[in-house]
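Why run this: before we spend reagent on co-expression, it is cheaper to look at a predicted model of the complex and decide which construct boundaries make sense. The entries below are exactly what would go into the expression plan.
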Amino acid sequence: MANRVAIVGVGQTHHTAHRPDVNQVELMNEAVRAALRDADLSIKDVDAFLMGNMELFEGSYLVDMWAVDGIGSYMKPGAKITSGGTTGASLAIAAFEYAASGLFDIVLAVGFEKQEEGNTQAGIVAGSDPLWGRWIFTSSLGIFARTALEYMRRTGAREEHAAMLRVKADRCACRNPYAHLKLNLTMEDVLNSRMLVYPLRFLDMCPVSNGACALIVASEAVARRISDKPVWVADWVTVHDLEGSLMGAMPDVRTHEIAAAELYKRNQITDVRRDIDVAEIYEPSSWGELEWYELYHFCERGEAWKLAEKGTTDMEGEFPVNPSGGVVSTNPIGATAMIRIAEAALQVRGDAGTHQVTREVRTALATGWGGSDWTTMVLLKKSL
Amino acid sequence: MADRVGIVAVAQTKYEASKPRQRPVELVFEVVEKLLEETGLTFAQDGSGIDSTVTCSQDFWDGRTISNVQVMPAVGGYRRAEVKVAEDGAHAVFCAMAQILSGRSDVVLVCAHTKESETHRNVIENAAFDPIYERPLGVDFISAAAMQARVYMHRYGVRPEQCAQVVVKNRGNAKRNPFAQAPMDLTVEDVLNSRMLASPIHQLEVKPVSDGACAVILAREQKAKRLTARPAWIMGISSCYDAFHLGDRDLASCDALVKAAKKAYDMASISDPSKEVHVAEISEEFSYQELLWSEGLGFCERGDGGELLEKGVTAFEGKLPVNPSGGLLSGRPTNVAGLAAVAEAALQVRGEAGAHQVPGAKTAVAHGVGGPCGQLHCVVILGSQGG
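The model came back. Tokens follow.
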């Protein structure tokens, strides 16, 4: 098992569709400054820097070079790490490993996306095979439409169940000062929004956001010295899969199940809703949230729609999921998976303010999804 | 460091100007298969094999968002842990080493690939500059390097012939390396008569377009010793970013390299690299850079890089051979370059470099570079004994 590390600072931008006032580096700078303020550290205290985004979205090559001016990595070690949707989590995990390695005491990770400067759909389609995939690949829409249809057929879930989770996400987002979409949605709004690919509607999908998120991670000894409220990183898991996992008739994200099984086994989690107090999951679609409750073992197979009906995962519910409003409310892709970890850390600290859950939080789960069905899971704890 | 980390096996494809018969995943498969055969390791899930993978590639060069998706079948990416470093390959070694020292993994596969032949480097490199103020000028890494070469040569009186001599030396060394792309008998006149790309840089003074892949396996001390009788121990490692805008930097200096090198040497308890380092594999994307980086790495005083070369110190038979493999000037793809430098340095301290083995090489420096005019440097010190 790894040496211990803690998150000692988190920062994020106010995520929005338009940020003409800043460039990509200035956007990152906002998150970095926020994280340093949160940790009560100076940039001089940071020993190493890890940054990442989706290069082809903004069309900037080696953006870690440009980022030097904004994130403070001048004359410091660092690297660029990317892995699609999981980029933010991969950065965080690399930061955990850098801080746990003994090579560095304090590591800063920053993920960002300024999607208005590119074409996200074109960027995502460019992820598929140039000969075999690019002509037919329909990006996330095709994936979630297919799995949603399969889920409805298998469980009897209806469009209303995904809509319930979408309304829940919006209620949470409206209480989160950093969230992008705050729409005061009703069930009717969601169910009457434009059909994209049956059964996915416009409001079922994540938005195109600009934003950045930064985490400051410290080794155990340093964290105990510099932080009043270190959030301990209990464990993390990365499970990747082959390109073909997005093709064919495979209805489930197997990597979610594999990662969850590994994480829960190592951490003696036998009843997820009892042993974990809050979850921030990477749900690019409200349908994904519904289906993945089951893969993460938040409930029995075929019963996620019951959680939606009962409001189990509401902010005030028995097992709150995405009190931040989640990815359907906010999605600056290179930062998104890191925002899950940052929000989970705030919940553990009790510092989430207006979107702090009512349940007492000792243990929080943050997940990521990206690549060709890639999963990351990070488990945070108040004490070790 | 609590535990030593060793490189237990390395593999490279032959580097070629174009590899139209192999897709990136096939290049990676070629090198990973060699490693699995050599070590007997598998992608077992029970801790008996390779625990995790660090890949290195660039979305820009591959023309693919999330460029590591395509190599999953070749790197054990099927339902296992992998992460991509989108920087020079030396940083992938850094990342893998951190995984091991953190206690998370015991054995890590690192691999890098690039097919430069499938795109245009100047278009990609232009996208590394500020989009508003610099890109419209058409600047790429070659034109940026020309400015650096001018400043460096002017300040220290480095002559064009000295720069050209680097090419003659490295292309000549490449004749001993079966993986090198472009071994060639050249004269200084040949180099200086080749087409001028951006004054003072001639065609033969630029790293040629290259396709290929490289992979290495890192292991924690106990496992490393079980996997090979001769691990190449990582004695020191560090990296450092310089400022982004060329005007914010002293281009004739290489402060970031000096800082990275100092940290790495300190870790390795090396006080005088010019005496204690036996061989170096450094990333000279351009001829003059081998001289400048030699200074930054402490092989000589500032401004003495040309003299060091002329005295034959960095020649294959010299006291401190630099790039006995032929280096980047003999063909080595972007991204792959730093990892290949680490692999070549590992071969040297393991005594397995064959015809380009430097006799008695016990301590080697590997160096990777990123960005225009060497904005980011990574220095890795390998030793047959150290740690």
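The two ends of chain B are 8 Å apart (CA to CA). Residues 5-119+209-227 of chain B form a domain with the Peroxisomal Thiolase; Chain A, domain 1 fold (CATH 3.40.47.10). Bring this page to Monday's planning discussion.
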